[in-house]
Specification:
This protein has eight helices and 14 strands. It is of the alpha/beta class. It has a single domain, classed as Class I glutamine amidotransferase (GATase) domain (Rossmann fold, 3-Layer(aba) Sandwich). β13 and β14 form a beta hairpin. It is globular. The model has no long low-confidence stretch (mean pLDDT 97).
C-alpha cells in the first residue's frame, strides 16, 4: 500500500443569471477527484486529497513534509498555486520554494505523477506554466511554450505502445474514447507507453533516485467521459499501475 497525495481536481464555478433588467450570481463547488480516489483506494492505497483552493496554503513545503507520502499527484493545478503561498503573495515575505522541494524529493526517491487538464503542463493560455519551473526537468516529457491543449470533440482512442510495462497495470483491449489532452514532446531516455492523436498520453521516466510519470489527458470529465472514468475496468489498472510503479 502507498500513501498518495492528490493536489488539485476541484474548482469553484460562478454563474451570472440575467433576467431582463435584473441579474444575480450563483456559485458552486465541484470536486473531480472521486473517480481517481475510488480507483486507487480499490487497490489498497491511502489517498489524501488537497483541493485546489487549499493548495496555496497547504501544499507540503519541504522534504520532511513530502516524506509523509510515497507518490504526489498534480492534477489540474497550476504552478502558481504551488509557488505563491499566502505569505509570499499577500504579505511579500520569503517562503519555501515548494516546487524546488518537490524536485529534490523526487530526486531522492519520491514518485511524481502529473495528470492533464486546463491547468496542467503548460495549460490554458499557458497559465499552468510548469515549463518555467524547475519541475519541468523532472517530468519525462518536454512542455510547449504556448497553450498546449488539444480538444478532440469527436473523441480518440489511445494507442498503447508499451503494453507490458508494469506502469500500465496489465490493462488490455481497446481504451474508451478520450476528448482531449495536453500536447507534450517525449523527453530523450523516457518511455512512452501510450499515445493519443500521435502525441504522448502515458510516459514514464526517472529523475535521480526517483520516478516520474505523466497522463496527459484527464482523470475526470470533460476530457475523460463517463465510459472512461466510471465504467471501464481498465481505469483502475492504468492509474493503479502508474502509482505502484512510481512508488517502486
Amino acid at each position: 500500500m502507498s500513501r498518495v497525495l492528490i493536489a488539485g481536481e476541484s474548482w469553484v464555478t460562478q454563474s451570472t443569471h440575467i433576467k431582463g433588467v435584473d441579474s444575480f450570481t450563483t456559485s458552486s463547488y465541484v470536486v473531480g477527484v472521486e473517480p481517481l480516489r475510488r480507483a486507487l483506494e480499490s487497490r489498497g492505497h491511502e489517498v489524501v486529497h488537497l483541493p485546489a483552493h487549499l493548495v496555496p496554503a497547504g501544499f507540503p513545503g519541504d522534504a520532511a513534509a513530502l516524506a509523509e507520502y510515497d507518490v504526489v499527484v498534480l492534477s489540474d493545478i497550476g504552478a502558481n498555486s504551488l509557488q505563491l503561498a499566502p505569505e509570499v503573495f499577500e504579505q511579500a515575505r520569503p517562503g519555501n520554494d515548494r516546487i524546488a522541494a518537490l524536485r529534490g524529493w523526487v530526486g531522492d526517491g519520491g514518485g511524481l505523477l502529473m495528470i492533464g487538464g486546463y491547468l496542467s503542463f503548460t495549460g490554458f493560455e499557458a497559465k499552468a506554466a510548469y515549463r518555467n519551473t524547475v519541475l519541468h526537468e523532472v517530468l519525462p516529457v518536454e512542455l510547449l511554450p504556448e497553450d498546449d491543449r488539444v480538444e478532440l470533440p469527436a473523441g480518440a482512442r489511445a494507442d498503447v505502445t508499451g503494453p507490458d510495462h508494469p506502469a500500465l497495470g496489465g490493462v488490455d483491449g481497446d481504451w474508451p474514447l478520450l476528448l482531449g489532452y495536453n500536447r507534450v514532446r517525449p523527453r530523450p531516455g523516457a518511455d512512452v507507453l501510450a499515445t493519443l492523436n500521435g502525441d504522448p498520453l502515458v510516459a514514464v521516466g526517472t529523475h535521480g533516485s526517483g520516478r516520474s510519470a505523466v497522463f496527459t489527458s484527464d482523470c475526470s470529465p470533460h476530457w475523460a467521459p463517463t465510459p472512461f472514468c466510471e465504467e471501464w475496468d481498465g481505469y483502475a489498472k492504468v492509474f493503479g499501475g502508474l502509482v505502484e510503479w512510481l512508488a517502486g
